[in-house]
Amino acid sequence: MVILKTQKGFSLLELMIAMFIMIILLSIALPTYNRSVQHARETVLSENLWQMRRAIDQYRADKGRLPGSLEDLVSNEYLREMPIDPITQKTEWDEIMGEDPMSADAEQGLVDVKSLSDGKDTEGKEYKEY
């Protein structure tokens, strides 16, 4: 009479091979994921800046003068809410003030918006230049 023992579970070698395969897959996937997240943040930054600049132009066309700040755009409903800078994760922006060409008294107004984040994007362009 022969009694066969059946193995239950995995051997140490099988577990090490499975772990090695997982490490290889993660080492490939993680940098790709990080690059895609960074690219998405850069795209959102570009879109937010475009929307704010469009709102400045629309405000000037409607009111005949430049807005005093981004808060004017939000309070007059040209923007639903203050956009978030996806790089800094804050609603703070560099508001570029300039002379209003439509003003007879040479008043100052908001002419442009830039990001306050330091650093460069994946192509080497500074975020402040967007």
| Number of helical elements | 2
Class based on secondary structure composition and strand pairing:
mainly alpha
* Count of discrete domains: 1
Low-pLDDT parts are none
Secondary-structure element series: HHEE
Global Rg: 27 Å
Strand order of the largest sheet: 1-2
- Tell me the major beta sheet: 2 strands, antiparallel
Cα shape: rod-shaped
Percent strand? 5-15%
Distance between the termini: 81 Å
How many E-type strands?
2
Average pLDDT works out at 91
Helical amount: 40-55%
Write structural notes for this entry.
The chain is mainly α and 130 residues long. The protein has one domain. The chain has helices at 12-63, 70-75, and strands at 94-99, 108-114. The model has no long low-confidence stretch (mean pLDDT 91).
